[in-house]
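Intended use. Records like the one below are meant for learning the mapping from a protein sequence to its folded structure. Do not use them to infer anything beyond what is encoded.
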Amino acid sequence: MTIAITGATGQLGRHVIGKLKQKTGADGIVALVRSLDKAQDLGVEARVADYTQPATLEAALAGVDTLLLISGNEIGQRAVQHANVITAAGKAGVKHVVYTSVLHADRSPLSLAPEHLQTEADLKASGIAYTILRNGWYTENYTGSIKPALANGAFYGSAGEGRIASSARADYAEAAVVVLTTDGHAGKTYELAGDTAYTLAELAAEISKQTGKDVPYKDIPEADYAAALKAAGLPEGFAAALASWDVDASQGALFDEGRELSRLLGHPTTPLAESVKLALA
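Structure written out for the chain above:
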């Protein structure tokens, strides 16, 4: 069986390829990438596949049995880009498409959700067997801010007391590999999140505990947080989006207690303390 992964040089894609190689070996794995140069270290066959250039997609998917469609990162353009991939997959005879969506896409207030929901609908209408992985937040989305928090003496955000059921990116990658390599997942939608939810105040307390420094959580208004992120060098639109997602988190958008992720994995998800330790290392 040939398994292809889109976005293979991205953070999630690299995790998936590494775990897939451990499970099946490198043969039969195809990395779909925009730049072959960036894929040289993956150790698997790489093919050029650009979401925005449909002509490249059908050829890239030739001979592929199962496709992991990792959602793109160009917010606002992803529904069309994903539709291009799904159409090409149908023409190429791909038998099963696994898609990385977002947690509770059908009721999420996140600005990310509508594009994911559109892709889910396109996939269901395609006639191809599908599995939808509704991934919750990656813990790295927050632990990536630990070093700035240490420099600033506080962890800033707009998530209030919202509980965040995130998990390590590696956990979501492992779940994808389980679905790609075992039977019984066709037609299913999985709501995937970490076993234990936390507030940003609890994250800040864990950072303080592991560093021996007082790093409190400081909740600030959405506009102030967006401005701070912009001042830190993020593009204005992305800074505004990040701040809005924090506000959504304050209203429960990133919370789930179904534990479907750990059931797929067959073991508990990565604890917050371990992710903090890794980020500090």
